[in-house]
UniProtKB/TrEMBL annotation:
It comes from the Bacteria. It comes from Brevundimonas aurantiaca. InterPro entries: FitA-like_RHH, Ribbon_hlx_hlx. Transmembrane segments: none annotated. Residues 47-58 have a biased composition (Basic and acidic residues). One of its GO terms (biological process) is regulation of DNA-templated transcription. Pfam families: FitA-like_RHH (PF22513). Residues 47-75 are annotated as: Disordered. This is Thioredoxin-like negative regulator of GroEL. Residues 2-35 form the Antitoxin FitA-like ribbon-helix-helix domain.
Amino acid sequence: MAQVLVRDLDDRIVARLKMMAKAENISLEQKFRDMAAREAMDVEARFEAASRRSREQTRGSALDSTALIREDRDL
């Protein structure tokens, strides 16, 4: 497994994260792992949602791009 060293974190942020971890009865290290995993999954979910919206918006388009492509080639 990979290791990550995070430098120059604000002391107040670290203190807050320690309190959050303690409230959840987990280590600060586990809190960071959970946060990183959640963020990675959220990014993937946002991408999938954006892709789905894009597909839905373009589904069934009556646009025929053939004429536009020919016009561009003729320039």
